[in-house]
Protein backbone atom coordinates (compact mmCIF):
# COMPACT_ATOMS: atom_id res chain seq x y z
CA UNK A 1 0.00 0.00 0.00
CA UNK A 2 1.64 3.22 -1.18
CA UNK A 3 -1.02 5.87 -0.56
CA UNK A 4 -0.61 7.90 2.63
CA UNK A 5 -4.22 9.00 2.21
CA UNK A 6 -5.51 5.40 2.29
CA UNK A 7 -3.22 4.47 5.17
CA UNK A 8 -4.49 7.33 7.29
CA UNK A 9 -8.11 6.43 6.55
CA UNK A 10 -7.57 2.76 7.40
CA UNK A 11 -5.79 3.56 10.63
CA UNK A 12 -8.53 5.98 11.62
CA UNK A 13 -11.27 3.43 10.91
CA UNK A 14 -9.35 0.77 12.81
CA UNK A 15 -9.17 3.16 15.73
CA UNK A 16 -12.90 3.76 15.43
CA UNK A 17 -13.67 0.03 15.52
CA UNK A 18 -11.51 -0.48 18.58
CA UNK A 19 -13.26 2.48 20.20
CA UNK A 20 -16.69 1.02 19.47
CA UNK A 21 -15.59 -2.34 20.86
CA UNK A 22 -14.34 -0.65 24.02
CA UNK A 23 -17.57 1.33 24.26
CA UNK A 24 -19.66 -1.81 24.06
CA UNK A 25 -17.52 -3.49 26.70
CA UNK A 26 -17.91 -0.51 29.00
CA UNK A 27 -21.65 -0.61 28.37
CA UNK A 28 -21.83 -4.26 29.34
CA UNK A 29 -19.65 -3.59 32.36
CA UNK A 30 -22.07 -0.89 33.50
CA UNK A 31 -24.96 -3.34 33.08
CA UNK A 32 -23.11 -5.92 35.16
CA UNK A 33 -22.29 -3.45 37.90
CA UNK A 34 -25.91 -2.30 37.91
CA UNK A 35 -27.35 -5.80 38.22
CA UNK A 36 -24.55 -7.53 40.11
CA UNK A 37 -24.06 -7.93 43.82
CA UNK A 38 -23.85 -4.61 45.58
CA UNK A 39 -25.46 -2.73 42.72
CA UNK A 40 -28.67 -0.68 42.98
CA UNK A 41 -30.78 -3.41 41.36
CA UNK A 42 -29.30 -6.08 43.68
CA UNK A 43 -30.12 -4.04 46.76
CA UNK A 44 -33.66 -3.52 45.51
CA UNK A 45 -34.00 -7.26 44.88
CA UNK A 46 -32.76 -7.95 48.42
CA UNK A 47 -35.64 -5.88 49.70
CA UNK A 48 -38.16 -7.73 47.47
CA UNK A 49 -36.65 -11.07 48.53
CA UNK A 50 -37.15 -10.18 52.20
CA UNK A 51 -40.75 -9.11 51.59
CA UNK A 52 -41.45 -12.22 49.46
CA UNK A 53 -40.05 -14.44 52.19
CA UNK A 54 -42.34 -12.84 54.77
CA UNK A 55 -45.34 -13.17 52.43
CA UNK A 56 -44.62 -16.85 51.77
CA UNK A 57 -44.02 -17.74 55.40
CA UNK A 58 -47.12 -15.86 56.58
CA UNK A 59 -49.58 -16.62 53.77
CA UNK A 60 -48.18 -19.44 51.69
CA UNK A 61 -47.97 -19.61 47.88
CA UNK A 62 -51.21 -17.64 47.40
CA UNK A 63 -49.98 -14.57 49.29
CA UNK A 64 -46.57 -14.90 47.66
CA UNK A 65 -48.12 -14.96 44.20
CA UNK A 66 -50.18 -11.86 44.97
CA UNK A 67 -47.09 -10.03 46.23
CA UNK A 68 -44.95 -10.96 43.21
CA UNK A 69 -47.75 -9.94 40.87
CA UNK A 70 -48.02 -6.51 42.54
CA UNK A 71 -44.25 -6.05 42.40
CA UNK A 72 -44.15 -7.00 38.70
CA UNK A 73 -46.97 -4.54 37.96
CA UNK A 74 -44.98 -1.74 39.56
CA UNK A 75 -41.34 -2.52 38.66
CA UNK A 76 -41.71 -4.44 35.38
CA UNK A 77 -39.11 -7.26 35.58
CA UNK A 78 -40.37 -10.81 36.01
CA UNK A 79 -39.38 -12.48 39.33
CA UNK A 80 -39.52 -16.04 40.63
CA UNK A 81 -39.29 -17.10 44.29
CA UNK A 82 -37.75 -20.56 44.74
CA UNK A 83 -36.29 -22.72 47.43
CA UNK A 84 -32.56 -23.49 47.64
CA UNK A 85 -32.87 -26.25 45.02
CA UNK A 86 -34.64 -24.01 42.48
CA UNK A 87 -38.26 -25.21 42.93
CA UNK A 88 -40.72 -22.40 42.21
CA UNK A 89 -42.70 -21.89 45.45
CA UNK A 90 -45.69 -20.42 43.57
CA UNK A 91 -46.12 -22.83 40.64
CA UNK A 92 -43.92 -25.74 41.73
CA UNK A 93 -41.83 -25.65 38.51
CA UNK A 94 -38.17 -26.56 38.54
CA UNK A 95 -36.05 -23.44 37.87
CA UNK A 96 -32.73 -24.85 39.01
CA UNK A 97 -31.25 -24.17 35.57
CA UNK A 98 -31.71 -20.45 36.22
CA UNK A 99 -29.77 -20.64 39.48
CA UNK A 100 -26.66 -21.68 37.56
CA UNK A 101 -26.98 -18.61 35.33
CA UNK A 102 -26.67 -15.02 36.35
CA UNK A 103 -24.94 -11.92 35.09
CA UNK A 104 -21.72 -12.63 33.15
CA UNK A 105 -18.53 -12.12 35.06
CA UNK A 106 -16.94 -10.35 32.09
CA UNK A 107 -18.83 -7.86 29.89
CA UNK A 108 -19.24 -9.55 26.50
CA UNK A 109 -19.93 -6.94 23.76
CA UNK A 110 -22.08 -9.31 21.71
CA UNK A 111 -24.44 -9.79 24.68
CA UNK A 112 -25.64 -6.20 24.69
CA UNK A 113 -29.42 -6.34 24.45
CA UNK A 114 -29.78 -9.90 25.84
CA UNK A 115 -32.04 -10.33 28.93
CA UNK A 116 -30.40 -9.87 32.30
CA UNK A 117 -30.86 -12.72 34.81
CA UNK A 118 -29.97 -12.30 38.47
CA UNK A 119 -30.42 -14.96 41.21
CA UNK A 120 -29.78 -13.86 44.82
CA UNK A 121 -30.09 -15.97 47.98
CA UNK A 122 -31.82 -15.05 51.24
CA UNK A 123 -29.77 -14.46 54.37
CA UNK A 124 -30.59 -17.92 55.71
CA UNK A 125 -29.81 -19.51 52.29
CA UNK A 126 -33.24 -21.22 52.23
CA UNK A 127 -34.75 -19.21 49.39
CA UNK A 128 -33.73 -17.67 46.06
CA UNK A 129 -35.15 -14.69 44.14
CA UNK A 130 -34.68 -14.94 40.39
CA UNK A 131 -35.09 -11.72 38.41
CA UNK A 132 -35.32 -11.58 34.60
CA UNK A 133 -35.20 -7.99 33.34
CA UNK A 134 -34.85 -6.25 30.02
CA UNK A 135 -31.38 -4.67 29.62
CA UNK A 136 -31.04 -0.93 30.30
CA UNK A 137 -29.38 -0.66 26.88
CA UNK A 138 -30.71 -2.21 23.70
CA UNK A 139 -28.21 -2.88 20.93
CA UNK A 140 -30.74 -1.89 18.31
CA UNK A 141 -31.43 1.36 20.11
CA UNK A 142 -27.69 2.13 20.06
CA UNK A 143 -27.24 1.50 16.32
CA UNK A 144 -28.26 5.06 15.26
CA UNK A 145 -25.74 6.50 17.71
CA UNK A 146 -23.03 4.17 16.46
CA UNK A 147 -23.76 5.23 12.90
CA UNK A 148 -23.70 8.89 13.88
CA UNK A 149 -20.33 8.42 15.56
CA UNK A 150 -19.08 6.50 12.52
CA UNK A 151 -20.14 9.29 10.17
CA UNK A 152 -18.59 12.00 12.35
CA UNK A 153 -15.32 10.11 12.72
CA UNK A 154 -15.26 9.29 9.00
CA UNK A 155 -15.60 13.01 8.21
CA UNK A 156 -12.81 13.88 10.63
CA UNK A 157 -10.61 11.10 9.21
CA UNK A 158 -11.20 12.32 5.68
CA UNK A 159 -10.31 15.89 6.65
CA UNK A 160 -7.19 14.65 8.44
CA UNK A 161 -6.12 12.52 5.49
CA UNK A 162 -6.64 15.41 3.06
CA UNK A 163 -4.76 17.88 5.30
CA UNK A 164 -1.75 15.54 5.40
CA UNK A 165 -1.80 13.91 1.97
CA UNK A 166 -2.56 17.06 -0.09
CA UNK A 167 0.50 19.11 0.96
CA UNK A 168 2.70 16.06 0.60
CA UNK A 169 1.38 15.58 -2.92
CA UNK A 170 2.00 19.25 -3.69
CA UNK A 171 5.52 18.93 -2.31
CA UNK A 172 6.16 15.87 -4.48
CA UNK A 173 4.93 17.73 -7.58
CA UNK A 174 7.07 20.76 -6.74
CA UNK A 175 10.16 18.60 -6.27
CA UNK A 176 9.48 16.96 -9.63
CA UNK A 177 9.07 20.35 -11.34
CA UNK A 178 12.24 21.64 -9.69
CA UNK A 179 14.08 18.53 -10.85
CA UNK A 180 12.96 19.23 -14.43
CA UNK A 181 14.59 22.66 -14.29
CA UNK A 182 11.85 25.01 -13.00
CA UNK A 183 14.13 26.71 -10.48
CA UNK A 184 11.49 29.30 -9.51
CA UNK A 185 9.16 26.70 -7.95
CA UNK A 186 8.42 27.50 -4.29
CA UNK A 187 5.78 26.21 -1.86
CA UNK A 188 5.53 29.26 0.45
CA UNK A 189 3.70 27.16 3.05
CA UNK A 190 2.11 28.91 6.04
CA UNK A 191 1.61 25.72 8.05
CA UNK A 192 3.22 25.60 11.48
CA UNK A 193 3.55 21.81 11.74
CA UNK A 194 6.21 19.41 10.49
CA UNK A 195 4.80 19.48 6.95
CA UNK A 196 5.12 23.25 6.90
CA UNK A 197 8.70 23.00 8.15
CA UNK A 198 9.43 20.43 5.44
CA UNK A 199 7.99 22.79 2.81
CA UNK A 200 10.07 25.69 4.09
CA UNK A 201 13.16 23.48 4.08
CA UNK A 202 12.46 22.70 0.43
CA UNK A 203 12.11 26.43 -0.32
CA UNK A 204 15.43 27.17 1.40
CA UNK A 205 17.09 24.33 -0.48
CA UNK A 206 15.62 25.57 -3.76
CA UNK A 207 16.89 29.10 -3.03
CA UNK A 208 20.39 27.81 -2.38
CA UNK A 209 20.48 25.56 -5.43
CA UNK A 210 18.95 28.29 -7.60
CA UNK A 211 21.53 30.80 -6.37
CA UNK A 212 24.41 28.41 -6.97
CA UNK A 213 23.20 27.44 -10.45
CA UNK A 214 22.51 31.05 -11.43
CA UNK A 215 25.93 32.09 -10.14
CA UNK A 216 27.60 29.29 -12.06
CA UNK A 217 25.81 30.18 -15.29
CA UNK A 218 26.50 33.89 -14.90
CA UNK A 219 30.14 33.22 -14.08
CA UNK A 220 30.50 31.03 -17.16
CA UNK A 221 28.89 33.68 -19.36
CA UNK A 222 31.00 36.47 -17.86
CA UNK A 223 34.22 34.52 -18.14
CA UNK A 224 33.56 33.50 -21.74
CA UNK A 225 32.73 37.10 -22.63
CA UNK A 226 35.54 38.84 -20.78
CA UNK A 227 38.34 36.41 -21.60
CA UNK A 228 37.78 36.57 -25.32
CA UNK A 229 39.47 39.96 -25.90
CA UNK A 230 42.59 39.53 -23.71
CA UNK A 231 43.19 36.05 -25.10
CA UNK A 232 42.93 37.38 -28.62
CA UNK A 233 45.44 40.12 -27.79
CA UNK A 234 47.77 37.57 -26.22
CA UNK A 235 47.58 35.49 -29.38
CA UNK A 236 48.53 38.58 -31.33
CA UNK A 237 51.45 39.21 -28.93
CA UNK A 238 52.66 35.63 -29.45
CA UNK A 239 52.77 36.27 -33.18
CA UNK A 240 54.77 39.43 -32.52
CA UNK A 241 57.29 37.39 -30.56
CA UNK A 242 58.19 35.64 -33.77
CA UNK A 243 59.56 38.93 -35.12
CA UNK A 244 62.83 40.04 -33.55
CA UNK A 245 62.09 43.75 -34.00
CA UNK A 246 58.79 43.54 -32.00
CA UNK A 247 59.90 41.13 -29.28
CA UNK A 248 60.22 43.63 -26.41
CA UNK A 249 56.89 45.24 -27.28
CA UNK A 250 55.23 41.81 -27.43
CA UNK A 251 56.65 40.82 -24.03
CA UNK A 252 55.34 43.99 -22.42
CA UNK A 253 52.00 43.42 -24.13
CA UNK A 254 51.77 39.90 -22.79
CA UNK A 255 52.66 41.06 -19.25
CA UNK A 256 49.92 43.64 -19.45
CA UNK A 257 47.35 41.13 -20.66
CA UNK A 258 48.39 38.60 -17.99
CA UNK A 259 47.90 41.27 -15.33
CA UNK A 260 44.46 42.00 -16.72
CA UNK A 261 43.54 38.34 -16.73
CA UNK A 262 44.77 37.95 -13.15
CA UNK A 263 42.72 40.97 -12.09
CA UNK A 264 39.69 39.67 -13.96
CA UNK A 265 39.86 36.17 -12.48
CA UNK A 266 40.35 37.56 -8.96
CA UNK A 267 37.34 39.82 -9.38
CA UNK A 268 35.19 37.02 -10.78
CA UNK A 269 36.11 34.77 -7.85
CA UNK A 270 35.21 37.55 -5.43
CA UNK A 271 31.82 37.96 -7.09
CA UNK A 272 31.25 34.23 -6.79
CA UNK A 273 32.24 34.20 -3.12
CA UNK A 274 29.83 37.05 -2.41
CA UNK A 275 26.94 35.06 -3.90
CA UNK A 276 27.39 31.81 -2.00
CA UNK A 277 24.67 30.55 0.29
CA UNK A 278 24.21 33.06 3.17
CA UNK A 279 23.57 30.17 5.56
CA UNK A 280 27.13 28.92 5.10
CA UNK A 281 28.77 32.22 6.14
CA UNK A 282 29.83 33.10 9.65
CA UNK A 283 27.44 35.58 11.25
CA UNK A 284 28.44 37.93 14.05
CA UNK A 285 27.53 41.29 15.57
CA UNK A 286 30.20 43.96 15.23
CA UNK A 287 30.58 47.74 15.33
CA UNK A 288 30.46 49.24 11.86
CA UNK A 289 32.60 52.26 12.82
CA UNK A 290 35.60 50.06 13.56
CA UNK A 291 35.23 48.37 10.17
CA UNK A 292 35.07 51.74 8.37
CA UNK A 293 38.20 53.01 10.13
CA UNK A 294 40.00 49.73 9.31
CA UNK A 295 39.15 50.05 5.61
CA UNK A 296 40.25 53.68 5.57
CA UNK A 297 43.58 52.77 7.12
CA UNK A 298 44.13 49.99 4.56
CA UNK A 299 43.35 52.34 1.67
CA UNK A 300 45.41 55.27 2.93
CA UNK A 301 48.54 54.17 1.03
CA UNK A 302 46.59 54.16 -2.26
CA UNK A 303 45.14 57.56 -1.42
CA UNK A 304 48.61 58.98 -0.76
CA UNK A 305 49.85 57.51 -4.05
CA UNK A 306 46.87 59.08 -5.82
CA UNK A 307 47.61 62.42 -4.16
CA UNK A 308 44.28 62.66 -2.33
CA UNK A 309 43.25 62.79 1.31
CA UNK A 310 41.00 60.32 3.18
CA UNK A 311 38.64 61.99 5.67
CA UNK A 312 36.68 59.73 8.05
CA UNK A 313 33.80 61.14 10.08
CA UNK A 314 31.83 58.70 12.33
CA UNK A 315 28.93 60.36 14.15
CA UNK A 316 27.61 57.03 15.40
CA UNK A 317 28.83 53.50 16.03
CA UNK A 318 25.86 51.21 15.28
CA UNK A 319 26.01 47.42 15.52
CA UNK A 320 25.52 45.29 12.41
CA UNK A 321 24.84 41.57 12.14
CA UNK A 322 26.52 39.73 9.28
CA UNK A 323 29.71 38.49 7.69
CA UNK A 324 32.32 41.05 8.71
CA UNK A 325 34.88 40.05 6.08
CA UNK A 326 32.33 40.21 3.27
CA UNK A 327 31.21 43.70 4.33
CA UNK A 328 34.81 44.81 4.73
CA UNK A 329 35.52 43.86 1.11
CA UNK A 330 32.38 45.70 0.01
CA UNK A 331 33.42 48.93 1.77
CA UNK A 332 36.97 48.53 0.50
CA UNK A 333 35.79 48.21 -3.11
CA UNK A 334 33.70 51.38 -2.80
CA UNK A 335 36.51 53.38 -1.13
CA UNK A 336 39.14 52.20 -3.63
CA UNK A 337 36.78 53.09 -6.47
CA UNK A 338 36.39 56.61 -5.03
CA UNK A 339 40.18 56.99 -4.64
CA UNK A 340 40.71 55.87 -8.23
CA UNK A 341 38.56 58.71 -9.60
CA UNK A 342 39.51 61.40 -7.07
CA UNK A 343 41.59 64.27 -8.55
CA UNK A 344 44.99 64.98 -7.05
CA UNK A 345 44.81 67.34 -4.09
CA UNK A 346 41.13 66.49 -3.39
CA UNK A 347 39.53 64.49 -0.60
CA UNK A 348 37.61 61.26 -0.36
CA UNK A 349 35.09 61.65 2.46
CA UNK A 350 33.64 58.78 4.49
CA UNK A 351 30.69 59.68 6.73
CA UNK A 352 29.01 57.20 9.08
CA UNK A 353 25.72 57.93 10.81
CA UNK A 354 22.66 56.09 12.15
CA UNK A 355 18.98 56.91 11.82
CA UNK A 356 16.51 54.76 13.71
CA UNK A 357 17.24 51.13 12.85
CA UNK A 358 19.44 51.96 9.85
CA UNK A 359 23.18 52.55 9.66
CA UNK A 360 24.13 54.94 6.83
CA UNK A 361 27.63 55.21 5.34
CA UNK A 362 28.37 57.75 2.59
CA UNK A 363 31.58 57.64 0.50
CA UNK A 364 32.15 60.66 -1.72
CA UNK A 365 34.86 61.73 -4.11
CA UNK A 366 35.28 65.07 -5.88
CA UNK A 367 35.92 63.78 -9.38
CA UNK A 368 33.93 64.31 -12.56
CA UNK A 369 30.97 62.16 -11.53
CA UNK A 370 28.98 60.02 -13.96
CA UNK A 371 26.45 60.99 -16.64
CA UNK A 372 22.94 60.65 -15.19
CA UNK A 373 22.00 58.02 -17.75
CA UNK A 374 24.74 55.72 -16.47
CA UNK A 375 24.00 55.88 -12.73
CA UNK A 376 21.62 52.93 -12.71
CA UNK A 377 24.15 50.80 -14.62
CA UNK A 378 27.21 51.42 -12.46
CA UNK A 379 26.52 48.36 -10.27
CA UNK A 380 26.10 46.01 -13.20
CA UNK A 381 28.98 43.54 -13.63
CA UNK A 382 31.61 44.66 -16.19
CA UNK A 383 29.94 48.01 -16.85
CA UNK A 384 32.27 50.97 -17.09
CA UNK A 385 31.75 54.47 -18.37
CA UNK A 386 35.21 54.24 -19.88
CA UNK A 387 35.19 51.22 -22.21
CA UNK A 388 38.93 50.61 -21.78
CA UNK A 389 39.53 48.05 -19.04
CA UNK A 390 42.86 48.63 -17.36
CA UNK A 391 43.88 49.33 -13.82
CA UNK A 392 44.66 52.93 -14.52
CA UNK A 393 41.15 53.77 -15.62
CA UNK A 394 39.09 51.53 -13.37
CA UNK A 395 39.83 47.83 -13.71
CA UNK A 396 37.28 45.41 -15.10
CA UNK A 397 34.12 47.02 -13.74
CA UNK A 398 33.27 44.57 -10.95
CA UNK A 399 34.02 46.59 -7.81
CA UNK A 400 30.59 48.15 -7.30
CA UNK A 401 28.84 44.96 -8.46
CA UNK A 402 30.65 42.99 -5.76
CA UNK A 403 29.87 45.64 -3.15
CA UNK A 404 26.19 45.83 -4.06
CA UNK A 405 25.75 42.06 -3.91
CA UNK A 406 27.43 41.90 -0.48
CA UNK A 407 25.22 44.69 0.86
CA UNK A 408 22.06 43.07 -0.51
CA UNK A 409 22.98 39.77 1.17
CA UNK A 410 22.86 41.72 4.46
CA UNK A 411 19.38 43.14 3.68
CA UNK A 412 20.88 46.52 2.90
CA UNK A 413 20.99 48.95 -0.02
CA UNK A 414 23.74 50.49 -2.10
CA UNK A 415 22.74 53.73 -3.84
CA UNK A 416 24.80 55.80 -6.30
CA UNK A 417 24.24 59.48 -7.00
CA UNK A 418 26.12 62.47 -8.40
CA UNK A 419 27.28 64.88 -5.70
CA UNK A 420 28.24 67.75 -8.08
CA UNK A 421 31.14 67.58 -8.07
CA UNK A 422 31.99 63.96 -7.70
CA UNK A 423 30.12 60.74 -7.02
CA UNK A 424 28.55 59.66 -3.73
CA UNK A 425 27.85 56.03 -2.81
CA UNK A 426 25.41 55.50 0.07
CA UNK A 427 25.34 52.20 1.96
CA UNK A 428 22.36 51.42 4.19
CA UNK A 429 22.48 48.48 6.59
CA UNK A 430 19.95 47.36 9.22
CA UNK A 431 21.08 47.89 12.80
CA UNK A 432 21.09 44.74 14.89
CA UNK A 433 20.00 44.59 18.55
CA UNK A 434 19.97 40.78 18.81
CA UNK A 435 22.45 38.71 20.78
CA UNK A 436 23.56 36.28 19.58
CA UNK A 437 23.38 37.17 15.91
CA UNK A 438 20.50 35.37 14.14
CA UNK A 439 20.60 34.26 10.53
Main beta sheet, described?
Answer: 5 strands, mixed
Strand content: 5-15%
- The SSE string, one letter per element, is HHEHEEHHHEHEEHEEHEE
Q: How many whole angstroms does the radius of gyration measure?
A: 47 Å
Q: What's the N-to-C terminus distance? A: 41 Å
Total strands: the figure is: 10
Gross CATH architecture of the largest domain: 2-Layer Sandwich
**Number of domains as seen in the coordinates:** 3
Shape: rod-shaped
Percent in helix: 40-55%
> What is the CATH T-level topology of the largest domain?
Heat Shock Protein 90
Order of strands side by side in the largest beta sheet? 5-7-8-10-9
The CATH C-level class name of the largest domain: Alpha Beta
What report would you give on this structure?
By secondary structure, the chain is α+β, with helices and mostly antiparallel strands. It has three domains: 4-140, Beta-Lactamase, CATH 3.30.450; 186-280; 281-430, 2-Layer Sandwich (Heat Shock Protein 90). Helix content is 54%, strand content 14%. It is built from nine helices and ten strands. It has helices spanning 4-35, 40-75, 96-99, 139-179, 194-241, 247-274, 288-306, 324-341, 399-409, and strands spanning 78-83, 116-121, 127-133, 284-287, 309-314, 319-322, 347-355, 358-364, 413-418, 423-430. The strands form three sheets. Strands 5-7-8-10-9 form a five-stranded mixed sheet. Helix 8 packs antiparallel against helix 9. The protein is rod-shaped, with a radius of gyration of 47 Å. The chain starts with a helix and ends in a 9-residue tail after the last strand. The model is unreliable at 102-112 and 387-393 (pLDDT under 50).
